[in-house]
Amino acid sequence: MVTYEQLGEMYDAEVVDHYGHKVGGLDQVYLDNGTGEPAWVSVRTGWFGGRKIFCPVSNAVIRDGHIEVPYPVDMIKDAPDIPCDGHLTEDEEEQLYDYYSLDEGPAPSG
């Protein structure tokens, strides 16, 4: 599991999918309210980082200076548009859990 400290040192690092395809640059780390562990990151995508999207990081790894997540780039870029304004509401989190087919909690089910 990637720690908050590790992710904090990776600000602006590239987030890549499990095939090494670039998703975008790391923007912010969001912690699970219950565990305090990193659960989500916002990723800047598009021209000049114009769009920010959420991606789960519970099964992410840091490899060669990148953050590798176990989801395909197209899936991540098609994630629901949820404002990256500092806190996820329960409804927003539920949308993301549903979209990424995650069980309630920080760990992906697949």
From TrEMBL:
Pfam families: PRC. Residues 9-74 form the PRC-barrel domain. It comes from the Bacteria. InterPro entries: Bac_photo_RC_H_C (IPR014747), PRC-brl_dom (IPR027275), PRC_barrel-like_sf (IPR011033). One of its GO terms (biological process) is photosynthesis, light reaction. GO terms for cellular component: plasma membrane light-harvesting complex. Signal peptide: none annotated. This is PRC-barrel protein. The lineage of its organism: Bacteria, Bacillati, Actinomycetota, Actinomycetes, Micrococcales.
